[in-house]
Amino acid sequence: MADAAIATTAAATPAHGRYGSISRDRRWALRWSYFFLVLFAIFFLMPPVYMFITSLKSSAEISAATNPWWVYSPTLSNYIELLTQNQYLTFFRNSAIVSVFVVIITMVISVIAAFALARMRFWGSAALATGVFLTYLIPDTLLFIPLFKMFAWVNETFDIQLMNHWWTLMILYPTLTVPFATWIMIGYFASIPKELDEAALIDGATWFQTLTKIFIPVALPGIIAATIFTFTVAWAQFLYPLAFTTSTSELVLPVGIVTTLIKGDVFNWGQIMTGALLGAAPPLIIYAFLMDYYIAGLTAGATKG
Amino acid sequence: MAQVTLRKVIKKYDEVLAVRGIDLDITDKEFIVLVGPSGCGKSTTLRMIAGLEEITGGDIAIGGDVVNDVPPKDRDIAMVFQNYALYPHMNVYENMSFGLKLKRTPKNEIDRRVKQAAQILDITELLDRKPKQLSGGQRQRVAMGRAIVRDPKVFLFDEPLSNLDAKLRVQMRTEIKKVHQKVRTTTVYVTHDQVEAMTLADRVVVMNAGLIEQVGSPNDLYHSPATKFVAGFIGSPAMNFIPCHLEQAAGALRVRLSDTLAFPVPADRTTRYSSHAGKSNLVLGLRPEHIIETRPHVEPNQHDFENVIDVVEPMGMETLVYFTIAGAEICGRVNPNAGATAGKVMKLRADLSNMHLIDDGTGRVL
Amino acid sequence: MADVVARDLRVPARSGQLTLHKFARRKSTIAFLMALPLITIVLCLVVYPALYSIHLATLNKSMQHFVGFGNFEFLFRRNTFWMVVEQSLLFAITAVIFKAVVGFIVAHFVHNLPAKGQRKWRGMLLIPWVIPPAMSTLAWLWLFDPSYSAFNWILEHIGIDHVAWLGETGWARFSVILVNVWIGAPFFMIMYLASLKSVPEQLYEAAAIDGATWWQRIWYVTLPMMRNIIAITALFSLIVTFANFDIVRVLTKGDPLNTTHVFATWAFRVGIESGDIPLGASVSLFMVPILAVAATFILRDITKRGSEV
Prior knowledge:
The complex is a heterotrimer.
Chain A: H1 2-12, H2 18-55, H3 59-63, H4 77-84, H5 86-119, H6 125-135, H7 140-158, H8 168-190, H9 194-203, H10 207-218, H11 220-236, H12 239-244, H13 253-260, E1 262-263, E2 266-267, H14 269-304
Antiparallel strand pairs in A: 1-2
Chain B: E1 4-13, E2 16-26, E3 31-35, H1 42-50, E4 57-62, E5 65-66, E6 77-80, H2 92-102, H3 107-121, H4 136-149, E7 154-158, H5 166-182, E8 186-191, H6 194-200, E9 203-208, E10 211-216, H7 218-223, H8 228-233, E11 240-249, E12 252-256, E13 262-264, H9 270-274, E14 282-286, E15 291-293, E16 302-314, E17 319-325, E18 328-334, E19 345-351, E20 356-359, E21 364-365
Chain C: H1 2-8, H2 20-57, H3 70-77, H4 79-112, H5 115-125, H6 127-130, H7 133-143, H8 150-157, H9 169-197, H10 201-210, H11 214-225, H12 227-242, H13 246-251, H14 263-273, H15 277-285, H16 287-308
Helix pairs in contact in C: 2-15, 4-9, 4-12, 9-12, 12-16, 14-15
């Protein structure tokens, strides 16, 4: 017995023994990994960094065409102008209100529907769950034209003008957010063991109490993830607002920046970049703080599907 | 009075009959265990008592009242699940008090009951911890605490020890028995482990394929099984089954196992068995502890024979020997110092005073 | 014995007691009501418009008359239409391939890092996906600007001619694909990273013992284990990239000379900017067969996996 032990240790220690080469392999793999990751990081982070650099430049410096990657005389004038201007603040406000409301509407609908689909079996629930998933595959680029016409019809028939109002978006965005949010929540709810329901049932909880006191707290990470996604999708929407809102006072941020800051042939890039950066800020800030929920929601939704 | 009565209970899933007509009378304060292989319908029966499954046919009554259409929360039962089913976001105290809170029990009453249950189960220091901070055994105790707090008419246990490792299982088994002695409530306990059934139960219900094979005290089931299934299910290592013939020769009955081996039937059984002489499809049932090594003094109904040993398993306090007779693998329990060696012939002794003769066609023990 | 038992059992009065049957039925209706808002939204704002667009596609420009396949015939004869078909497919397929490859490579490198570092790098590398596409595309627009391109500035300094990133057809298409890949690759990375973690370490050890090189380990262990995730993310991305609007719209608006138009942007140009709604609807509808094919593949894949589990 002891001889065998000695033999194996002897075999493990020669100059090119397996153990030695594996840890050397690992170190080289690590070095190459860092090297390439730095390259990729440069690729991925360069545009936002460039946005930031440009935002600190005055128009004069930009047109002087000096080194675009460096700020020689940094200035906050772009920020100040944009933030004191009513227009930009209106965009921001519209975006914020729409996004927050869409999040609330979406989460209420999705959580309740997901609970029904994941837990309560009723006629057609399996078909509906698949159907929900499929609607996620029908892109907004297919629907915006018929919706355009439908809104015109609503105007003619009910005399409600849906066009060119930012609150119309609150009706439209849920079509994009609810299917995905429901899908994420179904995944989370389905992973809660059925015994928990039964224990609650024996403890005397009604369906509603089971939902509010058991399911929602336990599935909270999923709820947070779905909320973050809904907000990000709502905030980033471009096509629907572009198609359905035209007056400056009704625009949301993405559309506002693209259409108003580009006046004719004159591009005020300093302001555009500032506007874009500030516009990208809310999703980025949420991401910075809640990154783990974000990523967990993404991967959970996909691996369960 | 918390007796539980099942009358002709049937459970049908789509076209499959999971429970095919069960009649059972459980008396107040009794600890009864439903045991059987997976798929025999024991868990389904328990869940029907709990109200988690609809009863397709028959009646279930708790405390004299038929509860077929009564929702679980009104049946005055409490259940301990296999996976504990503790609410992960609540601490132990909240887990135990959840049901009472839903019933709007006054706070001091809740507190009293929770503290009392915690004391019985020795979990008082764990009251403000969350389930994920507890070990498997502690979680199981909390699950039991949750049940005790409700002060129900019936405790229902659904394979509560299956998720624990072997050592912990033995510990918790004793705990459960102690708790039952302190809190004398009718208990229906489901397990697939016959050792648990034997050690915990006042009465054991052996189930197979949706029907009850036999109901009785652990000793009754061990020593007087009614069917081959029960005989083979209860007891570990399992009873040996050897196909045999019953011969009548010179006024004496003998059990013939092979051309070379036959044992005389004990005198007190000759009248019982004589009518079956000559029948085919007979099986001799003999428990391993009744096949031992030869000893100097021969007791009545003990007969010596020899056989080549195939496998030897030393268990410490005894040694299990496996050998073959007429194609059937037999297990015997011999003294560890008896010199059993694989591949060698060994002198063995069969004690037929506890033999069972089984009709393999009907499965009944004669 | 049975009689005594029968007499002792009391059956509760029916009134006021919820029979288990009624309880189950109520559960069904409650559940249906809970899913109703979802169903309403999907029916009214997704299914109905989709079907309505078919009807719209059959009308003439002023939407007074029925022209049947007239719009489609018109489109088939337009050169631009076929360019749009070709470009949409080109962008989608190329972009997805690159996204998958880049995502896979980056995921592998991140996976090699010690656990603590992984979190930071993962966080940094996902940023392109978090920024609203319209905003980040603006940044790229600025980076590609004909007069002030920061890339051209670098090229100039190393002695290479300026590139008309958005002005020349070839480069413009390249730029669209590049931005697509930039925005989408992080998503692939995250998915692949999660999938990489689920491959049991023991498989790699067994392969190492069998003498496999790092490339062989990837080919024979990693890729087969990740087959499902690779397929699903690729299909998803195909659909999303194929129907993409934001990038092309902000970057090139379809120019130069309609050589970067995709279905979405061209439908917008034709349908809303030029005011011919039925024609726009027809353009959008052409996405349907391709999307349907992709969707069937996804569905088949999911149900296949579901039955495997």
